[in-house]
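Subject: for your reference before the review

Hello V.,

The reviewers asked for a structural picture of the protein, and I figured it would be easier to keep everything in one thread rather than splitting it across files. Below is the amino acid sequence we used in the manuscript, unchanged from the supplementary table.
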Amino acid sequence: MIKDGWKYDLGEYIKLGEPDAAEKSNAWKTAIGLQDVDGLKTSDYLLETAKDHIDGRIDIDTAQKRIESYYEERQDRRETEADTKEADIVSSRIAALLSEKTFQFSPVEWQAVHRRLFTGVFDHAGKIRTYNITKKEWVLNGETVFYAPCDSIMDTLRYDFDQEKSFSYEGLSLPGLVSHIAKFTAGIWQIHPFCEGNTRSTAVFVIKYLQTFGFEISNNAFAENSWYFRNALVRANYTNYKKEIHASTEYLIKFFENLLLEYHNDLKNRYLHVDYRKDLRF
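And here is what came back from the structure prediction:
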């Protein structure tokens, strides 16, 4: 199973490669890093395939087929290999999506992103969930965010997207833009329209949306801090007045400042924990 060394291995392509190789490297680093939001790790085979694609020896379609064939042919794979299957397949698909210069801002596009990432991985790929969900969160001491009820998902999605479409960014400062994007991202993530894979599909959708703004996105933020990203989304959507905990996008803003403005905020997950106190150094 691949360890954190992949960050430095692929990072060399950014330092040494031509722009095309650097762009592909960024896409792969983001794709691999995003698996961490669900505690998944990619394989050494995936890394070798990524290198071949970055070096130009294979195209992205071949890279995806290679990964899928690897698991189709290894029905007798070890349990440790079975654990990497989802991470490898979804990583290759994220890399492909991030390499494409196509995008449409709509709930349908978000569904299409989810479908492309998870077809063959989840039976419900691209389908809106039909039941209500909860999820115990480490950052909340086992409490859950209140997600949108299943019978109002599409109405809520349409409302949020219509609000964003009508919002004018003209004259907005970069910090103001970051704050707004953080709020929008937290809002659509809270809807959690899919049964699984919401955070990864949200990240891919938002990256592609931000690219339409002309940002050259520092994908290292997702590559190295994807779990922080998820925990920041949780904290942006959780309030408990009895415990004096209030929903806040401050943590998500710090993430987007690193992503879009090349800030160097210290993104540590323990800072997001509801019990964290700076004075007590929890």
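For the response letter, the relevant points are probably these. The chain is about 55% helix and 0% strand. The chain has a mean pLDDT of 90.

Happy to draft the paragraph if you're swamped.

O.
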